Amino acid sequence: MLGAVIGDIVGSIYEWNNHRSKDFPLFGAGADYTDDSVLTLAVADALLHGLPPQKALYLWATRHPKRGYGGAFASWLDTWELAPYKSWGNGAAMRVSPAALLANSLDEALDFATRVTAVTHDHPEGLKGAKSTAHAIFLARFGASADEIRRTIAETYGYDMDRTVDAIRPHYSFNESCQGTVPEALICALEATSFEDAIRNAVSIGGDSDTVAAIAGPVAEARFGIPDEIAQVAMERIPDDMRETLLKLYAHSEYAHPVPGARPAIPVAQLRRRYEALLPIEELPGERTFRIRLGSGWESFLYYGPSAAQWIRQQLAERGPGSRDTMLADCPELVALVREAWPE
Q: Are 215 and 133 in contact (CB under 8 A)?
């Protein structure tokens, strides 16, 4: 989820230089995506396209080398078998958020989390860290309160969730284990008053800052949403393959788009039914118009819809509502749907 990517980028410059305060530039000089973001998108790719998770992790990591991969994971990449290595590291939790976003039930979220985690982190603590993170995100996604999430995570996984951020901060130290990272990260998200506050909480306690924030980020995203300006900055700081995979990931969720301001005004399930009822959308003979982009499928429709709506409004304003433009008049249902989905 984008919340994980934002947490990773923001926390990247504080991993080895902890900043135990909430007062810092959100995207400081040198902030960049790390292995946390790369492997989160690898998990998304695996779940979206039915790839073996170990294959997706390997392909994404080798395509994005030198991003701060942990020693055990880096060694795993050099093996022929790509077999699980009993890890309890916090990498299990930092990358698992797509499992909670794509799932239609809690059981499915936990099954997805287990499936994408067990290929490397098959130690019970590694699996617990991934499942508890996915569990918290899923609950937040469907409106559970912070208190309810705290109680559920404590009862289900045995984590100490009764602490506060202020109580954690003075004594917390660098820890790469799930058991020493996940509960602290979840507390940072659940105590927060906004998405940004959660990220600042996560950085402020120190430790493995980018990973703590990458775990807290998607929980906070599910609770509060992400402000447009923060989402846009993050989307601009990642490479094309990561951006494209995020767009595909959100197209398969109720959110439709990682940037809230680009989301349609019509509920996603309803919009998709109405859009697919218009298919096939054919291009005009010898022309290359907005049809070719909007008619290429659901993901393409969501991606190009906002810009197509703006273009249609401009055309109507310039030519007047009574004018007849073949490109618009020949597909009035599509034009009407785009304008309704992305109004001014």
A: yes
- Each as own residue / partner, the long-range contacts of residues 141-146 (CB below 8 Å, 24 or more positions apart, any chain) are 141/100, 141/101, 141/222, 146/190, 146/191, 146/223
Please identify which residue in the block is written with the tokens 């934002």: 6
Does residue 8 register a pLDDT over 90?
A: yes
Alpha carbons 140 and 153: distance in angstroms, whole number: 12
- The predicted structure's pLDDT at residue 23: 97
The amino acid that residue 199 corresponds to is I
| Torsion sign over Cα 163, 168, 172, 178 | positive
pTM of the predicted model, to two decimals?
0.95
CB 36 within 8 A of CB 242: no
Q: Report DSSP letters for 76-144, one per residue.
A: HHT-SS-------BTHHHHT-HHHHHH-SSHHHHHHHHHHHHTTT--SHHHHHHHHHHHHHHHHHHTT-
How far apart CA 342 and CA 344 sit, in angstroms, is: 7
Rounded to whole angstroms, the Cα distance separating 96 from 111 reads 11
Helix and strand counts by DSSP (H, E) for the chain: 20, 0
If residue 212 lies in a helix (H) or strand (E), which one and from where to where? helix 209-224
Amino acid at position 147, single letter = D
**What is the C-alpha to C-alpha distance for residues 171 and 188, in angstroms, rounded to an integer?**
15
Which DSSP symbol is given to 290? T
267-273 average pLDDT score: 97
Q: Helices 124-141 & 209-224, crossing angle to 10 degrees?
A: 30
Q: Cβ(10)–Cβ(27) under 8 Å?
A: yes
Side chain identity, residue 47: L
